Amino acid sequence: MSRRSILVVAALLLSAGGGGYLAYQRAGPMPKPPADIETLDPLLRRRIEQELVRVGNRRRSTPAWRRLGMVYEANALYGDAARCYEHILSERPNDGESLHRLARVQERMGDLSRARSTMERSALAEPGYAASWCRLALWSLDLGEHEAGAAALEKARALTPDDPTIHFIDVRLALARRSPDTAISLLERGGLLEGAQAPYGFHLLSNARRQAGDIEGAAAAHAKGDGSRLRFSDPWTQEMQRWQTGYAAMRRSAGRHVLAGRFAVAQQLLEQVLAEDPLDVRSLNMLAVCRIEQGDPGAAMEILTRLLAIDPVHHDGALNFVRALLRHGSADGEVSRAAFERLQRALELRPSESMGWRLMASLEEALGRPDESLEAMERAMALEPAATDIRLKAGYTELKKGAFDDALERFRGLKETHPELTEAWFGEVATLVYAGRASAARTALEELSQRSDADPERLAQLASAVAGLR
Amino acid sequence: MGTITRALDSRVLPGVAIALALAPGCGGSSTPPPVYEPANSANSADEASGSPWFREVHEEVGIDFVHVSDAGGALRRFPEIMGGGAALADLEGDGDPDLYLVQSGELDGPAPGSPVNRLFRNGGAGRFTDITEESGSGDPGYGMGVALGDVDNDGALDLYVTNVGPNVLLLNRGALTFEDRSERAGVDQRAWSTSAAFFDLDVDGRLDLFCCNYVDWSLGGELACSTAAGRPDYCSPNSYDAPVADSLYRNEGGGRFTDVSAAAGLFARRGNGLGVVCGDFDGDGAIDIFVANDQMENHLWHNGGDGTFTDIAGASGCAVDQHGQPKAGMGTLAEDVDGDDDLDVLVVNLRAQADSFFRNEGAYFNDDTAAVGLGGASRPFTRFGVGWVDFNNDGFFDLYQANGRVAISSELHARSDDPYAEPNLLFTGQSGGRFDVSEHEGGVPSGLELVHTSRAAAFGDIDGDGGMDVVVVNRDAFAYVLRNVVPDRGHWARFRVLDGNGRDALGAELRIEIEGRSLRRDVKSAYSYCAANDPRVHVGLGDVANIRRVRVRWPGGREESFGPFEVDRDHILRAGEGTER
Lengths: 470, 581
Prior knowledge:
The complex is a heterodimer of chains A (470) and B (581).
Chain A: H1 3-26, H2 42-57, H3 62-74, H4 78-91, H5 96-108, H6 112-125, H7 130-142, H8 146-159, H9 164-176, H10 180-189, H11 198-211, H12 215-224, H13 235-241, H14 247-259, H15 263-276, H16 281-293, H17 297-310, H18 315-328, H19 333-349, H20 354-366, H21 370-383, H22 388-400, H23 404-417, H24 422-435, H25 438-449, H26 456-467
Chain B: H1 2-7, H2 45-48, E1 54-56, H3 58-61, E2 85-89, E3 98-102, E4 118-122, E5 128-130, H4 132-135, E6 143-149, E7 158-163, E8 165-172, E9 178-180, H5 182-185, E10 193-199, E11 208-213, E12 225-226, E13 232-233, H6 237-240, E14 247-253, E15 256-259, H7 261-264, E16 273-279, E17 288-293, E18 299-303, E19 309-311, H8 313-316, E20 332-335, E21 344-347, E22 356-360, E23 365-367, E24 383-389, E25 398-403, E26 425-429, E27 435-437, E28 454-460, E29 469-474, E30 480-484, E31 491-498, E32 509-514, E33 517-522, E34 531-532, E35 537-542, E36 546-547, E37 549-553, E38 559-562, E39 565-566, E40 569-574, E41 579-580
Parallel strand pairs in B: 2-34, 31-40
Antiparallel strand pairs in B: 1-30, 2-3, 3-4, 4-5, 6-7, 7-8, 8-9, 10-11, 11-14, 12-13, 14-15, 16-17, 17-18, 18-19, 20-21, 21-22, 22-23, 24-25, 25-26, 26-27, 28-29, 29-30, 31-35, 32-33, 32-37, 36-39, 37-38, 38-41
């Protein structure tokens, strides 16, 4: 056989093999799209359709089915996700990753008993994956199975002994066993009341103190909890979350970027969302925040004007308009009046929101009405009795309007309640300077000079002003 | 967006120019033992699962109420998914409970012919006649719930109907006729109200009123919401970020109430209130208020005895669950489930969230949901109406939950014509204070006939046979009347407890002494979700054939003893007719 013939035969064989492989891949069940796919977010719909084509071409491909499942799961289409993972498991019953993903979906659908049993299978199939053991431990505790929880916890500990998650679950176990002293000791000695997960730690501390009969201590700890959940490393879940798709997902993602201070990235996402839905007031509001924070309050005011035309009583929109206006520093009378009226209306609807009163104070001050500004500050202070910044601001406002005794009273009050607050000492000296009380100013300046954290440059300015007093 | 704004709060003040040159840029306890364990009571799981406990009889007994949510427009309007209330109590004074069903109706405002609330008179043996028109009780507002109490001390139960819009006080003038006195009484508030409760906050002999308010919502400000996948759907309360304070009205007598919400301290906290239950949770003699909030911390308003209330839920351990999470609280209950003579609390929640069983440990609450067997079975459902009722009269509280989603999910729907429909659940109470879910979902035979989007569930014995029945209001469907058909129920007794004015003594505590043990049961009507229940105290007794004594602690702390009593019959306990302790 000539060399050419050999090549032709080889090519034919390869082609036949390839064709057979393709035929093999295209055999098997085809996933059905969600029944109401037309009602879904258009970006998500497109993504699902792409993944369905991919699976259609590779029906025996576990990664293709898994990816389709993850797209569904990441976008809260749990029933559809479960069907994908179940399909994989019908062919590979011990696929630890698919079992893990199915268990998460079952949990989100509310069937915790079945989720726990599936997660147990996952952990046994893939015993080196710590997150499965952690979830198994937590879910067992949620179902009242303390010993099963303890056993799963030990498996996780053997894999990642230094992971703080393990210690948090230890605390949960101690609380389930009504051993508050153990729980408190684990929290305090394990450093679980510090760092990013501290709020969760404080919640557990609150439970432990309550169990120990310390109700006041429980209340104090409860105040430091913020409803955050226990977070732990779970790469499979993180991989799934990457598949969040659609305008709602983009908006959520933009929100995360805003909170992290990545305003330019957030702005890009929000502009895409708004191109699809120009009436989306939440996105408009967030976009305005991005513009304010990027130093363009004028653009923010334009965006917020659009927002408030759609929803005239949008609370955050009204507040942010005032913020933008204050940043902008100038506006015609009509704009200021409109901003003032909207803020007033917002405060009528939610009189116990201190942020609104803070903004009102600033706006009144900018409008040259110090008495009204102080009145708004009093409302904010009543709502936030521990906030020292408003009290300082009130002192300076009194000083600005020439009410020196009132300013002194405020600064001295702050010095008493918050002696660590050097700014209150500065305020006192500045007031005495403006009031022309030379002797008292010298004494106060001397006291201020003793403070190690006093800014030397401002001290020097004050010293010069005091020296100029007779 | 509220979060984002708040996250930026701290940046505001430095941005404000201050014109001064010198200013800067400026345990150990175990599960309590069972109350008692009757020798032959029908409390085992095997027996419980033997046959369904209820038979649905709405047609047979003459209840033809169909709820109308007004859904179906292009924009989903939030109240459409929340409403449907029920009251089951003796409004006529003939000894059997009548039925008042709260219609939602038309959100844009009632028009001639719009559906209204309906009153059905119980003619005895559980057969009902519609007397809405002649009774004057057919309020056309967009209804949510109802509370019951004798506000004018004339011995007849009055109705307070909560609406999306002005609430309505219907005074019972006798012979099942009602008069709308809302405006004159000063309780016609316009907030979106849900569950409400009458109780005597200051022990002056007049019933005061607590009213849960849900969200600061208006038709014109409705939002277009969607699921994470973009499907149009109902908003959640968090979409509006507009929680509101609840309302408290002091009964001044003479048919007038004063809004004391601010003076009482209620404005200190806002919430998305859906469920309320009153009781003396700390044993200090004053009646406190527990409020289940949707997706926010629950409130436990401790009655200071001087007209003021303080929210102690956070400190006492019933604001959030064991993970520190506020849940979507809907219906709520308070009973002494573990037999240690104090009131435990149950809150039912949204799908994928467990119920919250807060065990009262005397000085605090402990989230013991898993320990009582409620950690798993109800999670797949969104629960609203709820009752701890002893259906089989074995001496242990059973648990009924009326369910229905508030959001479309991607799982297969139970009914193709209602994506929010879910089966209800029945749990049988076991010794040790545990609950087992019945294989008969909702205590009825399997099938789709009784799977709807359920909201209020009200409890009472409609046919006077000693077995507690259930009425469930279903969104855009007929109401269930679930007759108790538990075979071989145990003995029972029922007490109507009347104060010196001859009205149901809401808040009175009964200790029912049997065979050396004591069962605590309180007189109350307000529990579940948007429901008012028969205030008579029903107690299951298993094989116990006589009641030695009943001790009553009246609101205010005075105690009297009554008895002995025969079982399997009704009794009346009147203040002043017992033996003073």
